[in-house]
Amino acid sequence: MNQTRGILFIILAVLSFLLFQAYTQDQAPKPQVDSTNTIGQYNAVGAETDAKNSVSIANNELRLTINSVTGDFIGADLLKYDRTVEDKTPLTLLSDRPDDYLRIVNGLYGVDGTDSAEKRANYTISNQTADSITLTYTNNNVTYKKIIKLDGYQVLVTYQVQNNSERKISLAPYSVFVYRPAPAPSLFSRSNIYGTSQSYAGLVISTAEDNYDKISTGDLEDGDFKDVTTNKGWVAISQHFFVTAYIPIETGSNQNFTIQSNYKDNTFNISTRNQITGTDGGSDIVNPGQTKDFAVKYWIGPKLQDQLEKVAPDLDLVVDYGWAWFLSLPLFKLMQFLHSLIGDWGLTIIALTLVVRIVILPLSRIQFKNQALMRVIQPELAAANERAGDDRMRKMMETQKVFKKYGASQFAGCIPALVQMPIFLALFYLVNEAVDLRHEPFLWIKDLSQADPYFILPILNGLIMIFMFSLTPMPENMDPTQRKIMKMMPYLFIIFFLFLPAGLIVYYIVSNIITILLIMYFNRKIKYQFENNLLPTYKVEDRPNKLLDTKRRR
């Protein structure tokens, strides 16, 4: 009975976790969208973003579209990532279209910067290659060059300021993310451009005080804002499998990160009801006759952990494994290694399941051996309870005698199951966060990171669980309410697993099949030992004969 309660506790914990995930998504702030407003329109002369002012540079991974007049990033397409399984056009992360939600306004601000409340830069193209472009702008005997170069998914921006005037000038780089939250997929969504609804999407800031801080702009009232000043860090827009990050390169001054909604900025002429984040630093001095470079960089691309950790400290934390990161991270490394040997992500998940189950086999052995023991000693337990009658203390003592006689334990089955629970949750986060699984097919599944569109996997998993539960009959004296709940569990799992990533259900199906094989093996072994008097039936006072009994069992 205690074994059954342990299993019931684990199942209820899993279901509670899944319910919590669904609840938090349903309660998430809904985006405030003003359909009449074009994101971030400028009033300054020469700031229009029509097609004639658009220029693109590209490499094998990224195509970046730039406003050649202002130097803003008005488009970014990921050339190795399709929009959806059916739509093979490149996924767009940045766009200045009114129905999209993210672009980057950037430049130099300050007394002598290129951008102010009265004007913005009026750049011209002075040099261009396939993956780089140089924009040049001259004003008041100061020449500004904005050099944009692609390196994989990194965008390296160098502002080269040549002061040909006779006075000191003061300026610094800035960047503004004009941002509107993407529509969150519902619980019933089986396909989404950026990923499932189970992952955080929104603003993330890393500072000297907090290396990973998620900030919900939905909590801000119209016109409210939050300022964060730090001497190091980055700011990013997380979009589940993808991230757009701004990484200032320190010039000796602090950076200021601002998050605001219903934004009206008199500094850069940006007016929008959509949420934005601004980043800037303290002004720096360029002396007469001096040329000075200001360098910043961006990451516009997928959440590739190995690369992100090299781009900036703690940037790899945008792959949000939650509290289970200490398990999810090594499991991800193991999954990468297995995939390098196998080459198929579906088979990799199966191989990962086998490795995990082999590692925890010593615990599983304790669990299923004890479960089999509890099965064969049920008649003696029932007899002991009958002898004790209504005397609860005597009933407990008689039960303990039976347990001691056969070496069974009330807790041996629960503890290994509790150990496996964090592993399951770590794999949940892993499958949900690994961009490697996005659009990866397996059998009839077109995307392992999304739910099975035909619901075959969750139904198959439910049928397997029904059979698995039948191998562990419930005690006759089990509480009727517990009995009903246990009978309902496989069917509840079918419902909740309908909307989980297919890759996770593949893991769970394989794991449950292994569990069934272990249960069948130990049930047969323990039953044979019990029927042939090979179990340790000695009493406490017979301990000197323990060695003899052990030899006999062998």
From TrEMBL:
Any idea which UniProt keywords this protein has?
Cell membrane, Chaperone, Membrane, Protein transport, Transmembrane, Transmembrane helix, Transport
Instruction: Kindly list the residue ranges recorded as spanning the membrane.
Output: 345-364, 411-431, 451-471, 491-522
Record's Gene Ontology CC terms? plasma membrane
Primary residence: membrane
List localization entries. Answer: Cell inner membrane; Cell membrane
Example of a GO MF term: membrane insertase activity
Topology in membrane: Multi-pass membrane protein
Q: What does the record list as GO biological process?
A: protein insertion into membrane; protein transport
Q: Where is the Membrane insertase YidC/Oxa/ALB C-terminal domain?
A: 345-523
Enumerate the spans annotated as Membrane insertase YidC N-terminal domain.
55-334
Please give the family membership noted in the entry: Belongs to the OXA1/ALB3/YidC family. Type 1 subfamily.
The entry describes its oligomerization and partners as:
Interacts with the Sec translocase complex via SecD. Specifically interacts with transmembrane segments of nascent integral membrane proteins during membrane integration.
* Known function: Required for the insertion and/or proper folding and/or complex formation of integral membrane proteins into the membrane. Involved in integration of membrane proteins that insert both dependently and independently of the Sec translocase complex, as well as at least some lipoproteins. Aids folding of multispanning membrane proteins.
Q: What is this protein called?
A: Membrane protein insertase YidC
Q: Which organism is it from?
A: Psittacicella hinzii
